[in-house]
Design a protein that fits this description.
By secondary structure, the chain is α+β, with helices and mostly antiparallel strands. It has helices spanning 60-65, 122-133, 183-191, 263-273, 330-338, and strands at 9-10, 23-24, 29-30, 55-59, 69-73, 78-79, 88-92, 101-103, 105-109, 118-121, 161-165, 172-179, 198-199, 203-206, 213-217, 222-224, 231-232, 234-239, 247-251, 253-256, 259-262, 282-283, 307-309, 316-318, 327-328.
């Protein structure tokens, strides 16, 4: 059992087929068997609890006065380095450097007598990153059934909607107006939003054989912290032939063996890879009019579609695939060629 917790399985609602919706309120997971049967344990009962060293707690006062900051640290979008990269939430604590590091879960405690703790994990941070990239307005929504702060992830992190499904109690509810909810926004309402990033301007040209290891990261915005302007671009780590390094910097474009990777293409690619509904529809199309690779941006980058308009020459063309629609990003083919 996870951290000694016993399952708390209840059926507060029914499924569309009329069967009871057995749900564990201790582990926030389904406990449904065949033909509406109630399982003895939920799907998450045997999953180990998150180790203490992978979670941390910080006070909002530290973020306000000591310069603490939180940022998502995702996996590299491209890497020749055989070292396992740690993913999670990078927490910077200038006043307590020994605790600075990467955690899987961070709780931020509010002012005394004020709000409850705000919990942030990789899924919350990834959803926030998607909403920010596609310029979606966020809001704070509490589930009326269990009062947990609601999280809109995946498809719902980039599409406004009124009906929501709580990931804690598995009950649906309607909000008064369409919106997208994320706990990070609750923190920003109290802390203020981090400063806007500045775009990287430099370019990097290199060959694979020059380095023992190469890792490229897409940009993730600061979730919360001081109003210090950061740089948006492709994060690059390079290990020399002697194994020394890494040498790290941020670039607008990175060219490896003649293959150009653009920072915005990789930012879109990073978010799109996290959208399960997009997975098999991600391709790289070539415009038949000008023979240049097509890059779907804005709403077209989120919705598979059959007819595309070339951003280079204005030519309208069909994707020519067996699907009802696809989304084109040059990064798909370019990363494949590199690998």
């Amino acid at each position: 059992m996870r951290a000694g917790k016993q399952c708390d399985i209840r059926a507060d609602t029914k499924l569309r087929n009329g069967y009871p919706n057995w749900w564990c309120h201790a582990h926030y997971a389904p406990a449904r068997g065949e033909k509406g049967a109630r399982l003895e344990q939920c799907a998450m009962a045997g999953v180990p609890a998150l180790p203490e060293h992978e979670q941390t707690r910080i006070d909002m006062s530290d973020m306000r006065t000591q310069g603490a900051a939180i940022r998502l640290m995702g996996a590299p979008v491209y890497s020749t380095n055989k070292v396992n990269h740690t993913t999670g939430l990078f927490v910077s604590l200038p006043h307590d450097p020994a605790r600075s590091g990467i955690y899987k879960q961070v709780s931020v405690a509010g002012p005394r007598g004020g709000m409850h703790e705000i919990m942030i994990d990789e899924a919350v941070a990834a959803a926030y990153n998607a909403s920010v990239l596609f310029e979606k307005e966020l809001k704070v929504i509490a589930c009326p059934h269990c009062e947990h702060s609601h999280i809109d992830a995946g498809y719902f992190a980039v599409h406004y909607h009124k009906k929501h499904l709580c990931s804690f109690c598995n009950r649906s509810f309607h909000d008064k107006e369409e919106g997208i909810a994320n706990p990070v926004y609750a923190l920003q309402l109290l802390m203020g939003k981090p400063a806007m990033s500045t775009a990287a301007t430099q370019a990097l040209h290199m060959s694979k054989h020059e380095y023992q290891g190469i890792s490229l990261w897409t940009y993730y915005p600061t979730l919360a912290g001081p109003a210090i302007t950061d740089t948006a671009g492709i994060g690059v780590s390079l290990w020399g032939g002697d194994g020394h390094g890494p040498i790290q910097d941020i670039y607008k474009t990175v060219t490896i063996d003649g293959i150009v990777l653009d920072d915005m293409m990789l930012r879109y690619y990073g978010v799109q890879q996290g959208m399960a509904y997009l997975a098999k529809y991600m391709v790289t199309l070539t415009c038949p009019g000008c023979l240049k690779e097509h890059f779907d941006t804005g709403a077209d980058a989120l919705t598979p579609h059959k007819v595309h308009v070339c951003e280079h020459c204005g030519h309208t063309f069909s994707d020519g695939t067996r699907y009802k629609g696809v989304v084109s990003n040059p990064a798909v083919a370019r990363l494949r060629r590199l690998k």
